[in-house]
Amino acid sequence: MNTPKRADVILKGIPLSPGLAEGRICRVRSVPFQKTGGGGAASDPAGEEERFSRARERALEELKALEEATRQTLGSDKAAIFQAHQWMAQDPLLVDGVASGIREGQSAEDALVETTLALKAQFEALSDPYFRERAADILDVGQRLHRILTGSEDLSRLPEEDCLLAVEELAPSDAALLGTKKGVRGVLTAEGGPTSHFAILLKSLELPGISGLPLRDDLFVPGETALCDGETGEVVVSPSEETRSRFRDRMEQQERTRSRLKAGIDAPARTRDGHSVGLWGNIASPHDASGVLDAGGTGVGLFRTEFLFMGRTTPPDEEEQFQAYREALTALAPFPVTIRTLDAGGDKEVPYVKGLVGEEANPFLGLRALRVCLQHPDLFRTQLRALVRASAHGNLRIMLPLVSSLWEVRQARTLLEEVRAECRDQGNPTAERIPLGIMVEVPSAAILADRLAREVDFFSVGTNDLIQYTLAVDRQNPRLLSWYDPFHPAVLRLLALTAQGARAAGVEVGMCGEMAGDRLALPLLVALGYDDLSMSSARIPWVKETLLRLDRPSCQALWEEIQGMESGSAIRDRLAAFQETTGE
Ligand code: PEP
Ligand code: MG
């Protein structure tokens, strides 16, 4: 008897990145990288060696293809890592180690796990940081070979046709790789919050994303059709014809809205009563700069430079960084480009920086971001030199992440001034003035905004971290979503304090966390006098559409009313009602 085909299995997850998508489910899962004690090496060592040799051939093909695709989309610097991995996959230390494990009676998988982990441990024990950092690459290559041997899927081999990727969790570098996968229409995950790094990248790739889903085999059958709505977090697996046709109507509507918004991208970003707000884009590489202009953005409020440092084994040198910063500055000139100094650590893992820091019990409260730069001035100086040299090519603003005290700003400024003098003495052209600003993303910085404002040229509020640190809620954990509340009265007070501190000292105040692209929050940010809001480029036209409908006095009256409210949910309801009155 045939089992009746199921239809319209509706699941509700957490919206990560907006948009509608239809596709076939493509399940990517990893087999644990550990020995199982099984396998048939004892009976057929030659067969196991042959399997391992075929796995290596396939790994080399994959790595070559990845190297090429990455070169085209992200540039040669990012592609070099895959060249290095090809050498490692052929290294006699690995190949002979596995062969001898097989001859001792292990399966190819177990021999591979044992050899890889032993090599990794040897490299980790070396005193030279360069070699210590190779440990992560050895593990990566071993895991690739293991996946091929065990027949599990991976991101580099996704089908070309429309697919909805179902995966437990994505690392930021995996999400960056998705940009090269033209068949991926959306991403469904179990883990990850709306302000996790991969969610931010999905938004900039304009890929719908939903997390918090139960990725059970009976629900997410590979090859079955599914629909996803990244705005509501709804997924429909095996949609009926009727559901599908209604969904396609909505997709067409979405396209029409996109075209309408595109038509308005040149309109000045200001309220009905003429109050201007800069709508800027967040970027992760110079390649993203043109997307900001295409969306009507008039600046970059956050260039997350850590992506230049990820997915490789050594930091980019001064010249490579200089080229990247210059490219972004030239593309945007005369508009401002705010380049954030290295923000490694916490959710942004950079293996060789982790090597410098060592193991920490609480990396989110650890030696990360500006802290690690101040402790390792060589790393910081290289970046500052590249920035100062690039300043001659556009309108640069330098921004320091995770500032919690005044002394950090002073120390960073001293270093910057030294570097500027050095660059000028060496005959490098540099900008007359390079504004130095800070991210306000630790509560202490918001509380001390009036003092900090005397030390800097601008503030930009990083709400993703500010909310996390104010409410003690992990921004990546989807189970804590009801606690992670941008409209929590305590968060709003800090936003107001920051804006007041900035205004009193006459410095600019902006926002570059995800809240900057939230249309519900916009009336409050207008009322508080935020000068610029920086978001994923794709959000700019949407936010502009809302901005054009607002007027500042009504926003200010709304803020007065909201200050008396006790809960984030009451505030959210009030903002939603206000949005309706403005005609959305
Ligand atoms: C933030 O914390 O709000 C921010 C913009 O920085 P990131 O998301 O890169 O931590
Ligand atoms: Mg942050």
TrEMBL record:
Top-level class of the enzyme under EC nomenclature: transferase
Gene3D superfamilies reported in the protein's UniProt record: Phosphoenolpyruvate-binding domains (3.20.20.60), Phosphohistidine domain (3.50.30.10), PtsI, HPr-binding domain (1.10.274.10)
The enzyme's E.C. designation: 2.7.3.9
Residues the record lists as binding Mg(2+): 441, 465
One Pfam family hit: PEP-utilizers
Domain Phosphotransferase system enzyme I N-terminal span(s) in chain numbering: 12-134
Disordered: region residues: 233-260
Alphabetically ordered keywords of this record: Cytoplasm, Kinase, Magnesium, Metal-binding, Phosphotransferase system, Pyruvate, Sugar transport, Transferase, Transport
A Gene Ontology term for the protein's cellular component: cytoplasm
Active-site feature positions: 197 (tele-phosphohistidine intermediate), 512 (proton donor)
GO terms under biological process: phosphoenolpyruvate-dependent sugar phosphotransferase system
Residue ranges constituting the PEP-utilising enzyme C-terminal domain according to the UniProt record: 264-550
GO MF annotation: an example: kinase activity
Name of the protein: Phosphoenolpyruvate-protein phosphotransferase
Source organism of this protein record: Aminomonas paucivorans DSM 12260
